[in-house]
Design goal:
Number of helices: 6
CATH class of the largest domain: Alpha Beta
CATH architecture of the largest domain: 3-Layer(aba) Sandwich
Distance between the termini: 46 Å
Shape: globular
Order of helices and strands: HEEHEHEHEHEEH
Helix content: 40-55%
Largest sheet: 5 strands, mixed
CATH superfamily of the largest domain: Glutaredoxin
Radius of gyration: 18 Å
Length: 169
């Protein structure tokens, strides 16, 4: 009886390791590139304010979330990002080609999203960052990218990455 249990445990471990390695490889391949001097660039948010990545991430890890109202996977990741925001993690969304400011604001209200968001109607910000897919989540600390991931993300997976970035960087 012990051998089958050990066999399945080993298979589960190998599968988890393979999934982790593939995920890391895909994230590396799709990684965005933070433009030079972007940390100091003022970004207008839908709420009428302005922020910079340097200010947002000073002494702590901030989340920059590239998303689109048209993105199916974003509909699953956005609630996790909202939970991070509600837990006190600084979040800046970048609404990629999702319409005008009023359309994006209406979409966010309808979906219960209240994190600060910069509208990117023509995709200029996303092109500067070389964002290849949505959603893309970039962790920034002291104005510099420290981690990124693409695709679906869970609250606890993202929360763990923010926690680790706060301690390592």
């Amino acid at each position: 009886m012990r051998k089958p249990a050990l066999y399945w445990l080993r298979q589960a471990f190998q599968t988890a390791l393979l999934v982790l390695l593939v995920s890391l490889a895909v994230d590396w391949w799709r990684k965005p590139a933070q433009p030079e001097q972007f940390a100091a660039q003022p970004l207008a948010t839908l709420s009428g304010g302005q922020t910079t990545l340097a200010a947002l991430s000073h002494g702590r890890t901030a989340v920059v979330y590239f998303w689109g109202s048209w993105c199916g996977i974003c509909k699953h990741t956005s609630p996790a990002i909202q939970r991070l925001h509600e837990a006190g993690v600084p979040v800046l969304g970048v609404a990629l080609q999702s319409g005008g400011a009023e359309e994006v604001a209406a979409y966010m209200r309808a979906h219960g999203l209240s994190f600060d968001t910069a509208n990117d109607p023509q995709g200029e910000i996303s092109r500067q960052w070389r964002v290849a897919v949505t959603p893309t989540v970039v962790l920034v600390k002291n104005g510099k990218t420290v981690h990124n991931t693409t695709g679906i993300g869970s609250y606890w997976g993202l929360r763990g990455r923010v926690w680790l970035a706060d301690r390592v960087y």
